[in-house]
Specification:
The chain folds into 2 domains: 2-151 and 197-300, Ribonuclease Z/Hydroxyacylglutathione hydrolase-like (Metallo-beta-lactamase, Chain A), CATH 3.60.15.10; 157-191, no CATH class. 26% of the residues lie in helices and 25% in strands. The protein has helices at 40-47, 63-66, 69-78, 93-102, 157-162, 169-175, 212-217, 235-241, 246-256, 273-284, and strands at residues 2-8, 22-27, 30-36, 55-57, 85-89, 112-116, 122-125, 128-134, 142-148, 180-182, 185-187, 201-204, 223-227, 261-264, 290-292, 298-300. A hairpin with a 2-residue loop joins strand 7 and strand 8. The longest helix is centred in the C-terminal third of the chain and has 12 residues, at 273-284.
Length: 306
């Protein structure tokens, strides 16, 4: 399972129908947050994502991306959490966490670890990795790529049986990429497996102008979640405040050849339903497979060969 829940999809200020930026990613048994704006934990309750967050990844320290962290940490402390919590972010993430601890938000029941990242850094996990990418905003900022490991090719059951292999543990061993010995013969995985298959890949930019580093990092992604703050008619604001218009984000998606684009971080002027529809139409004129995120929207990212 790889599920994305949009907890907050608004821009700098909350609106009646959009909270500030926060995205929950469920991968198998893990729950990660990418940014954690104001009200994130209430949105998690509404979305029923659970509260057992393994890791928080911060793109930058503007208030609309981090103000949900103090309350979330305090709730975890009140629930007597014992597992350590890792919070990754750009320069000064350690200072940020130090301030929260000094103010008593984290409690004493669990450890909060701050890990500073720079563009190009890699966080390795079982079965996947998270890479950081350079983004272009008006403060120090980074984006994130979550990419799963290459998977073995499809198992050819009929071919395996032709080779004299009985279904059972030997099948499993070949499927996991190990050779077996059968009646004095070595049977290698490539004799019964198809070509390797890619894992899933998602990219989250946070706030950014369109840039080559995002295009490069997003190449062939299954899902690109991109800053889509403004419309083409307010492009000057996007340039001034270092955000993207939806058309610019769509151009990034097109150049990177992603499978799907979802726009988030909508300005308050576009946060209502009519505004979101207009932004979607504008973006789809450039990149057809585009959607505009809404709060509590859920997306399942599937394998390409499903």
């Amino acid at each position: 399972m790889l599920r994305i829940t949009f907890l907050g999809t608004g821009g700098a200020t909350p609106t009646p129908n959009r909270n500030p930026s926060a995205i929950a990613v469920n991968r198998e048994s893990e729950l990660m947050l990418f940014d954690c704006g104001e009200g994130a934990q209430q949105q998690m309750m509404r979305a029923k994502t659970g509260m057992k967050v393994n890791t928080i990844f911060i793109t930058h320290f503007h208030a609309d991306h981090v103000l949900g962290i103090p309350g979330l940490l305090q709730t975890m402390a009140l629930q007597d959490r014992e597992e350590p919590l890792e919070i990754y972010g750009p320069r000064d993430v350690g200072r940020f966490i130090d301030h929260l601890q000094a103010l008593g938000y984290t409690g004493r029941s669990f450890e909060v670890r701050a890990i500073e990242l720079r563009p190009g850094d890699v966080v390795r996990r079982t079965g996947y990795e998270i890479r950081t990418l350079k983004t272009v905003h008006n403060v120090v900022s980074i984006g994130y790529v979550l990419e799963e490991d290459i998977r073995p090719g499809r198992f050819n059951r009929e071919r395996a049986i032709e080779l004299g292999i009985t279904p059972g543990p030997l099948f499993a061993r070949l499927q996991s990429g190990h050779s077996i010995s059968l009646e004095g013969r070595e049977i290698r995985p490539e004799q019964v497996l198809g070509p390797p298959r890619p894992g899933r890949k998602i990219v989250y930019t946070g706030d950014t102008r369109p840039c080559e580093s995002v295009i490069e990092a997003s190449k062939n992604a299954d899902l690109l979640i991109h800053d889509g703050t403004l419309s083409e008619e307010t492009e000057e604001y996007a340039v001034d405040y270092m955000h993207s218009t939806v058309s610019e984000a769509a151009e990034v998606a097109m150049k990177a050849r992603v499978r799907r684009l979802i726009l988030t971080h909508l300005s308050a002027r576009h946060s209502h339903l009519e505004g979101a529809i207009k932004l979607k139409e504008e973006a789809r004129s450039v990149f057809a497979n585009t959607d505009v995120a809404s709060d509590l929207m859920r997306v399942e990212v599937r394998y390409r060969d499903e």
